[in-house]
Amino acid sequence: MEDSIDAILATSITLIRTFDKQIKELDKTIKRIMKGMPQVLQSIPGVGPVFVAGIIAEIGQIERFENEEKIAKYAGLYWRKHQSGRFTADNTSLSRNGNQYLRYYLVEAANSVRRQIPEYSDYYAKKYREVPKHQHKRALVLTARKFVRLVDALLRKNQIYTPKRSVINEA
């Protein structure tokens, strides 16, 4: 019995080491490829080469979208509408249409950015307090929508991120 457990553990450890090695190789490849591309999105605090690679790969040429709203719709970052006559439902679910990979990268990047940039953290907190149900998910998706506006602006203007300056009023 002990021999079989030892064999299973040894196999599991070997698999974990193999996966770790493959992940490191993929990360190196992504970093190498990203060095040849404009570093517009990597200038945003909390957004690393993996998020940037995923977002750029899924968006492609930014010019194919009219505005940031079209990017958000393409990613499926919107809620379905339920209405009949004059009735409009307040509690609707997030759309499952759209590019699921882009949605994943945008939401995860927004989650990372909210930990780094106070403006996004404040926005997330505000949206979190607005509703009693599904607070985190809703606030995170709305923060991702805000992040889409930033991504769109930076990619269209081909400029790096510059944080807003805080104004200190001295008496």
Automatic annotation (TrEMBL):
<dbReference type="Pfam" id="PF02371">
    <property type="entry name" value="Transposase_20"/>
</dbReference>
<dbReference type="InterPro" id="IPR047650">
    <property type="entry name" value="Transpos_IS110"/>
</dbReference>
<protein>
    <submittedName>
        <fullName>Transposase</fullName>
    </submittedName>
</protein>
<dbReference type="InterPro" id="IPR003346">
    <property type="entry name" value="Transposase_20"/>
</dbReference>
<feature type="domain" description="Transposase IS116/IS110/IS902 C-terminal">
    <location>
        <begin position="39"/>
        <end position="124"/>
    </location>
</feature>
